Amino acid sequence: MILKAAFVAASLFAASPLLGQNKPASPALNMLIGNATANDTQATVIDKFAELVTKYSNGRVTASARHGGALGNTTQMLAALQAGSLHGMIYPTGFMSTVVPELSLFDRPFLLPGVPSKITAFAAQSKAAAKMMELAEQKGIHIIGFHGIGPQSLLTRFPVNKLADIQGKKLWAIPSPPRVGAHQDWGSVVRPMQFSELYSALQQGTLDGMEGPPDVLYRMKMHEVAKYYTVTEHFVVISNVIVSKKWFDGLPKDLQGVVTKAGKETIAFADAAYTKSQTASLEAMRKAITVTNMPAAELQKMKELAMKGVWERMKNDPQKGPIVKLLEEDVVRFNKE
What is the DSSP letter of 150? Predict the structure, then answer.
């Protein structure tokens, strides 16, 4: 009897590794990606990111996106990302300046060309961008990489033919210090509000205009309530693929690699998508509203005022000045390549 019991116990012990192999696999991790816009190229790019994460993880991570501010406004989503309850976003750097102030430095007026792929290429070689990524890590945000969205110009309820036309007008801009400072130099008044509020504000006249790339403006139907688009390309929009550092650090190393690979491929996808969309959206706006180009002499006035104003203020800022210097060196090096 004792021998029989010992045999059974030994058999079970020997079989235990096999029994362990039959345990059900760990449940898939969920990855939630937030977005403030909807039905535009940014939403398409975010969906691609979710698709690639799910694909490359072989379903170990199930990624999905929530568009149109379904998870809150920008401030709320960034806080959730830092806390780890929101796992990813793809969003313009200027909106992140309240959390990582140095990310606003991409918003210097007339800094870069507006072609999405050139913006992306610039950021990839930028020492200033690498420093910004380090600073973002300290705030709980892991930046996989940057990509270009395109140039920003002025959409208004009134015609703009010269700089004086926007002076005293209430305009919306991404609320980063370089952008707000540039508008102060130009004499316009920046009115901060959530993106979801802009359509009704333009419709009701509480805003006189806004700035944005053709893709966002057309796909979000802003041209329905503001009928004049003046091509200035005074700013460009740089976005970044970001994930929660807390969430990312908790992933196994192989899944960290999956998320990184998916993010980098999403950046390449974004370049092509935005290039196509910006061109198509501008052509569609030409058929729907009045589209004109700001005269070169007026653009030069805007640039000179910004160089003497916000550019100098940023150079003299004790916190941002060193990164401004790096950024200027990046521009010189990029233009030589």
Answer: E
* 3-state DSSP assignment of residue 243: strand
This prediction has a pTM of: 0.85
Number of domains into which the chain is organized: 1
Q: Say which CATH number the domain at 219 has.
A: 3.40.190.170
- Dihedral of the alpha carbons of 318, 320, 324, 330, in degrees to the nearest 10: 130
Using left for φ > 0, alpha for ψ between -120 and 50, and beta otherwise, residue 59 falls in left
Which 3 state secondary structure label does DSSP give 83?
A: helix
CA distance 141 to 38: 23
In sequence order, which residues have a C-beta less than 8 Å from that of residue 54 and are 6 or more positions away?
61, 62, 63
pLDDT along the chain (337 residues), means of 10: 37 37 56 93 96 97 96 94 97 92 93 92 96 98 97 97 98 93 97 91 97 92 97 96 98 98 98 95 97 98 96 92 94 91
Q: How far apart are CA 284 and CA 279, in angstroms?
A: 9
Report CA Rg, the chain. Answer: 24
Residue 208 counted as domain residue: yes
